[in-house]
Each structure stands twice: as structure tokens, then as C-alpha cells.
Amino acid sequence: MSNSSTSREWFPVFRVMTSSPPFIHHTIFVETDSPSLGTGHTYHMNGSVGSDDRPMMREYRYNARPEDSKRWPFVAREPLGVVRVQDYFGAGEDEAAIQEEAGDELHSEDVVKPLGLGVGGKFRQVCDDVPEPSRNNQCMVWVDQAVNLLKEKGVLLEEVDTPSRGEN
Hints:
Mean pLDDT is 77; it is low at 1-6, 105-109 and 162-168. By secondary structure, the protein is of the alpha+beta class. It has helices at 85-88, 95-101, 121-129, 139-152; strands spanning 10-20, 23-30, 40-46, 57-63, 74-84, 113-114. It has a six-stranded antiparallel beta sheet with strand order 5-1-2-3-4-6. The longest helix is centred in the last third of the chain and has 14 residues, at 139-152. It contains four helices and six strands. It has one domain. It starts with 9 loop residues before the first strand and ends in a 16-residue tail after the last helix. A hairpin with a 2-residue loop joins strand 1 and strand 2 (23-30). It is globular, with a radius of gyration of 15 Å.
């Protein structure tokens, strides 16, 4: 797996919406690989949509390019800003090893592989501080609260000059 993120200072962060009929599911996607590959990490709430029988829980996972998913039909991607690589892969973390942990299968198919405990640094810590929604199908509320808190804590920053899609 190619790892061009080590030469980057920023990872772009997006709100990704996928179809989960009858709802639109909202997630936060951190594009940790090169923009041409588009793989990264998804942060979201997962639960039984439309049912309060199974509470929503945090799920952080490695993710292929959201637009290529067959399991979660893509609806839209909206830029939210950027996170500094140093805030995402903290001091002492081996970024290349963490990226490699995802495996090459991410580039070709849908997988649900949880992020290791050491992945996400300050970004993950802030997401952990956002309470689970009191009701199911409120993933958009959780994403809104997480984005606001990430900005408030200075982890999610306004867009900076980053390579355009398709550049390495």
C-alpha cells in the first residue's frame, strides 16, 4: 500500500452522507491516504436505524473511498476543514505502521475494520467526548456536535492550501 501521507502536513476532513433508507446517514471522514486513493478513517454513530431497541454506539473504522462503496451507497461529500497530521498521528506513533494496518483490501472492497486504539490522536479524543445521541437515527446531530467541538478545541481547522483531488 502506498503511503504518501507522511509528506503531508494536513489531512482533509469531510462530512460524508450515504443512503440508509429511509434515512441519509452522516459520518465524518478523514482522508489519510493520498487524494487519488481517497482511503481514510470514518467516525460515526452506528445503531439500528429507526429503532430504539439497540442504542447507537460510536464506530471508528478504516474506510475505502466513500464514493466507491457498494455497501453504503454514496450520496454526498462536503469539506469540513483539515486536521494537522501531528494532531492525528501523535508523537511516538508510527504512522506508516498504522496506515499499513488497514491493509490493501481497503482499496478494492467494502470492509468494516475498526481503528486500532492508537489511531486518531487528538481528533479521536475529542470525538470520544461527544455524547451518544439519546435516540437512534440522530447520526447527523452527533456529527454536528463533533464538528463543533473539534473546531472549538482547535483540532479541526479551516481549509488550507491542499492538493486538489487527483494530485499526489
